[in-house]
């Protein structure tokens, strides 16, 4: 299941921002915690316009998500072309995500699976649930 959360995101918009940081929630439709977290995730997205946010169902996009070995939901990825800032499970609270975004440290070099996911988001944002 996927639907656009923000229709204003286009490939041209993404190309203009070379190192846009993506905040990607790796989730599953069947996960109750993910369903409860989604409105909070969208709330944080609205209050952090410098980031791009995407909701990626790991079953709908298994070809991209399998390499992440998601075992706990929600799992969050914060990354851009310059590297990964965070990848791991995060308590499903808006305050926790907002606090983490405010405290991001220097990026690490991105892993191959992160590069693949970020490239797919930039190439075809309409296939994902994207907001800002």
Helix content: 25-40%
Largest sheet: 5 strands, mixed
Provide the β-strand percentage band: 15-25%
Report the CATH C-level class.
Alpha Beta
CATH architecture: 3-Layer(aba) Sandwich
Shape: globular
Task: Give the helices and strands, then pairings.
Layout: H1 11-16, E1 21-27, H2 32-47, E2 51-57, H3 62-65, E3 75-80, E4 83-89, H4 94-102, H5 112-123, E5 129-131
Parallel strand pairs: 1-2
Antiparallel strand pairs: 1-3, 2-5, 3-4
Helix pairs in contact: 2-4
Describe the structure.
With 132 residues, this protein is α+β, with helices and mostly antiparallel strands. It is 36% helix and 23% strand. A hairpin with a 2-residue loop joins strand 3 and strand 4. Helix 2 (32-47) crosses helix 4 (94-102). The longest helix has 16 residues, at 32-47. Mean pLDDT is 83; it is low at 1-17.
In short:
The chain has 132 residues and is of the alpha+beta class.
Annotation keywords:
5-stranded mixed β-sheet, 5 helices, alpha+beta, 5 strands, single chain, Glutaredoxin, disordered N terminus, 132 residues
């Amino acid at each position: 299941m996927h639907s656009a959360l923000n229709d204003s995101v286009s490939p041209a918009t993404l190309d203009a921002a070379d190192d846009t940081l993506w905040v990607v929630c790796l989730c599953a439709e069947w996960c109750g915690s993910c369903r409860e977290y989604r409105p909070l995730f969208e709330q944080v997205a609205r209050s952090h316009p410098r980031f791009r946010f995407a909701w990626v169902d790991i079953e709908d996009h298994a070809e991209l998500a399998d390499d992440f070995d998601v075992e706990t939901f929600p799992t969050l990825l914060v990354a851009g072309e310059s590297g990964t800032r965070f990848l791991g499970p995060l308590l499903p609270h808006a305050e926790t995500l907002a606090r983490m975004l405010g405290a991001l440290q220097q990026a690490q070099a991105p892993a191959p699976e992160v590069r693949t996911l970020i490239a797919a988001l930039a190439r075809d944002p309409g296939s994902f649930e994207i907001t800002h």
